[in-house]
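A favour, since you know our structure tokens better than I do. Just paste the record in under my message, thanks.
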Amino acid sequence: MTPDEARSLLLTTASLEREGIPASRVRSMASGGEIVAVHRGRYVRSDRWDAAYRESRHLLSVVAADAFRRSDDAVFAFASAAVVHGLPLYRHQAGAPHICTPHADGIVRRGRALRRHEIAIADADRVVVGGIPVTSLQRTVYDLIRTTSRETALACADAALRSVAWDDGRLTYDDAAAETWRSGLKGRIARNAGARGIRQARWIADFAEGRAQLPGESTSRLYLADLGFARPRLQVPFPGPNGAVYRIDFGLDDVRAWGEFDGMGKYLDTEMLGTTSSRKALQDEKEREDWIRGRSQWRFARWGSAHIATARALGSRLASFGIAPAR
């Protein structure tokens, strides 16, 4: 969801009145569950809210809060900047929108409507995205990889690198662009050696990889490292029949195995399926796997969200396929 799309979903008392709903009914609609209050005087229809991912829900609250912003010095930051940039908030509950104001004592003032961080944001670290003032992509990633869990941090850093270096049309990855951006992030980390969470930030900046397509792939890679596997290749091209090229999520070269993180969306989501039926998608995937397994003579393991609850859970899943770290 983009900021403009979020704005189109927001309702006010005035907009509801234009639909013929009197102001006296708005409160009862909210208490009755017809609409959800996302900020003071801003609402979203319940069906839209229920269907939205956590990133979209937080973006709705950010866009709603921005309508009340009175200072040009204020800038949205942390998770709130992340959703404006289109980054994931994997396993992270953002709470109220985060906004920075130009003071330097670092105090965080928590309220029901906003979390105000009294932090000075340099002009070079400010951008406007979709009409909303936010911290730059690099500053946003720097803030999050220091202050969130490893899973959230890596998913965020991977997605940022992907936005910089991956070309969806050509299915190519610009290594030079990725490394230039990574170098800038690492330079920022080096200049703030004593900051909170800087050791984790340093590790995430080194480990981040923009070829990861989903947060589940990022977390899988994190847990593979925890389990002792060598760093895998990602989105590995494999020659298929009749000139086709298959892309495999993980190439575990050290143990001669392939790995795929499977979200059920590609078998059930009508937008992802297009005109293909679920049955046909499953059949195509089986034929693809059989081809790769037969041609490579490598083991082939699949796992889903339930198998990356912990590193141990992923290790157990891989062991069931006879896949274990090289000793």
